[in-house]
Write a structure and sequence with these properties.
Helix content is 46%, strand content 0%. It contains three helices and no strands. Helix 1 packs antiparallel against helix 2. The longest helix has 25 residues.
């Protein structure tokens, strides 16, 4: 997983590449697909490997490795919840609401 700062380092390459892409298209006459495969993709993958030590070939996998996209650990099984707003753990199938909280279905401790 990448922290937000690390993700910006990796994704930052895509921001600078947009300007470069337009210039390269004009200069070389290559279409976007050719420039994408030969320019931007290797740079992003290289930066990801430099930060994590993991060789990745699928650019889509990198976009899904931003830690802030996911929620905290499940209070029951400890696995990461799918979203920061999740109230239910997909893996252990248990609610994340504390006992006695509204909607928990459990009586408050007296």
């Amino acid at each position: 997983m990448l922290s937000d700062e690390e993700f910006e380092q990796v994704a930052g390459h895509s921001g600078t590449f947009t300007e470069e892409l337009r210039g390269q298209q004009t200069a070389t006459g290559l279409d976007r697909a050719a420039l994408f495969a030969t320019g931007w993709l290797p740079r992003v993958l290289s930066e990801y490997k430099r930060l994590t030590g993991t060789h990745e070939t699928n650019i889509n996998a990198i976009w899904h490795h931003q830690a802030s996209m996911y929620g905290p650990p499940c209070v029951h099984c400890g696995k990461v919840l799918r979203t920061p707003q999740a109230r239910f753990c997909f893996l252990c199938h248990r609610d994340q609401v504390e006992a006695g909280a509204p909607g928990s279905g459990e009586p408050k401790a007296r």
